[in-house]
Amino acid sequence: MGFSNLRIPKLCEFCEKPFEAKKVTARFCSKYCSEKSGKRQKQLAKEMEARQTLLEKSVSKIADIQTRPYISVSEAVTLFGISRDTIHRLIKSKKIPAINLGERLTRVSKIDIEKMFTAVEMPDKSKEIPEKPNFEVGNCYTISEISSKFYADPGTVTNLIKRNKIPTKKVGSFVYVPKNLIDKIFDGK
Ligand SMILES: [Zn+2]
Fold first, then answer.
1. What is the mean pLDDT of residues 84-98?
2. How far is the centre of ligand 1, averaged over its atoms, from the C-alpha of 178 (Å)?
3. 35 CA distance to ligand 1 centroid (A)?
4. pLDDT tens digits for range 99-123
5. In the structure, what pLDDT confidence band is assigned to residue 3 with cuts at 50, 70 and 90?
6. How many angstroms does the Cα of residue 51 sit away from the middle of ligand 1?
7. 38 CA distance to ligand 1 middle (Å)
8. Taking burial as the number of CB atoms within 10 A of a residue's CB, which of 12, 14, 64, 146 is the most buried?
9. What is the pLDDT of residues 12-62, one digit of tens each?
């Protein structure tokens, strides 16, 4: 082709300065910008690859954890998204079996954590349904009624209601509380 008289105004893709291109396909103002851009592309590709490798590693790590009955505390953190503190507390209270293979080598039973974290969610859901407050007359206690029925002073009753997030309804100077929710608490004690 040789020389061309063509002059096309363009913006360099690397330094973003305007330049006059001799070819429609030109992307850079200079050899310098072209090389720099190539290096940057390679760098980006490398970073992408590193990120991809990291991702694949964590996927295969999780797959590997899934196959073992006993896992480390940090693996339990990865797998269940619960904190180290929670896990250590569960071990301490003997809620999940653990083996101590040495300093920082605690292994916990994966199945037991699994069971626990499904077991915790289930009753929570079933609790939410009957907790719809029923404020109809005859279905409610007043604070003083609870107080005399369960031999607790009104302050204690009020605290108990707050602590258990029991819904209440105020009518005049009386606070009405659904009977079933109160009975459930005192039954449980
Ligand atoms: Zn340039």
1. 90
2. 75
3. 10
4. 888 777 889 998 888 888 764 444 4
5. low
6. 29
7. 12
8. 146
9. 999 999 999 988 899 999 999 999 999 999 999 999 999 999 989 888 888
- Residue 158 domain-assigned? yes
pLDDT of 138-165, one tens digit each? 889 999 999 888 888 888 889 888 888 8
In this predicted model, which residue has the larger pLDDT, 46 or 172?
Answer: 46
The parent domain of residue 173 ranges over: 140-188
- How far is the centre of ligand 1, averaged over its atoms, from the C-alpha of 150 (Å)? 84
- 134 domain-assigned: no
Ligand 1 mean position to 10 CA, how many Å?
Answer: 10
Separation CA 84–CA 163 (nearest Å) = 27
121 in the same domain as 147: no
Ligand 1 centre and the CA of 44: distance in Å?
Answer: 19
Residue 63 within a domain: no
Q: How much of the chain exceeds pLDDT 90, in percent?
A: 29
Could you tell me the distance, in angstroms and rounded to a whole number, from the CA of residue 40 to the centre of ligand 1? 13
The count of domains in the chain is: 3
